[in-house]
Amino acid sequence: MKIWEEDPEVTNVQVVGHEGCWVGLKGNYNLAWYELSRHKLGWLVSGVLALLATLISVFLICLHLRNYRTPKEQRYIIRIVLLLPVFSIGSWLSYRFFHKAIYFEALRDLYEALALYFFMVLLFNYIGTDKNGQPDTKPEDQEQGELLTQSQSNAIVASEQAQSGQEDNTQENHEAVTWPFPYSCKKINLKKSVYIVAITVGMFQYCLIKVILTAVIIISQFFGRYCPQSWSPKYASVWVTVINFISVSVALYYLFALYLIVKKPLYEKKPGKKFAAIKLVVFFAFWQKLILQILSLDRFNIIKQTNVWTKEDIVNGLNSLLICFEMFCFSIFYFFAFSWKDYKLGPNERRYYTRWKLFNDAFNMFDIFRHEDEYGVGLGRMRALPKILKNKMKKKKIGEEEKAK
């Protein structure tokens, strides 16, 4: 078997699919299916990593579907976990069809913005969904697929009250939460719903801007005005990078502020692991590509063009290969951060969803436009959040007093 086989006489080649699943070089020089080039080997490695990440993620999703007892939480967990297969497959395709990598990356990053939104809604649903400000301890009705007996419902309420007494958190301590740096001198006053609305808008803006930027990338690339290898302001790539940097930074800032608000009342939900899981993916997806692009600039000339590959091709290939490896590592972390065991059905419990309705509820992402007040898009439920948090802290205080007696 020949490895690292390249023809020094070949220049300006493009990768095409003449060899089925393998990749050959266009022109007089063409590798047989059993011969490996650098591109073939990298594509094979990234494909194996993407496949493993996808299988682990799909396995976790299937476990949640089999134990689908809390739709208001699990539907968003499933959609967040789906981020890993989207990134893995998108990066693998970007490596394989590197001359079309811009389009795959744009669509892949669009789902990243949706995943951030789903994580925000998940945190709000952990707190409760009662618009009147009462903690949500009631099971969902039959149409939503979660049928529990009254005794089971009472048992859940009693269990939550027992767990609430285990944490030494007071309402005063919770209200002392301050904004992250650089506004750490200011407190987040939960009695004013404007703070919750600000967090919601600060995160939701990333979804809207990402949709606009995706359209700009696709259109400008089609007309040859994107030019990601250039930092000249006359090309769209510079402005897309700057706007995306500002937008994602604002979203992550407000996401961290939201985490500071809910980490004490939601301690039993382990929000720290979930926050780290979603933030790591966003961090590597943005900064990794930016660093590689900087290293390819003529000023540094660390990533150099060859007679076969341009700097842009090398940057896209390295970034895609690294993302496939990272998604494999993250898939293992996600398996524990978004564990299905918290929703495991008891021996006498069963879900009443039909198979079609189960998949429709979990994967129909258009529900974010229908259930505005209930699932966090509208501001009505956000205004009720301070009262919900206050009642949860009050319930914990009652649990502590009962435990002390």
TrEMBL record:
Membrane topology value: Multi-pass membrane protein
Signal peptide interval: none
Chief place where the protein resides: membrane
Key word Transmembrane helix present: yes
Annotated TM spans: 41-65, 77-98, 110-128, 194-219, 239-262, 274-297, 317-340
Domain of life: Eukaryota
Protein keywords: Membrane, Transmembrane, Transmembrane helix
GO CC term (a single one): membrane
Pfam families named among the record's database cross-references: Solute_trans_a (PF03619)
Subcellular location: Membrane
Protein name: DUF300-domain-containing protein
Organism per entry: Mycoemilia scoparia
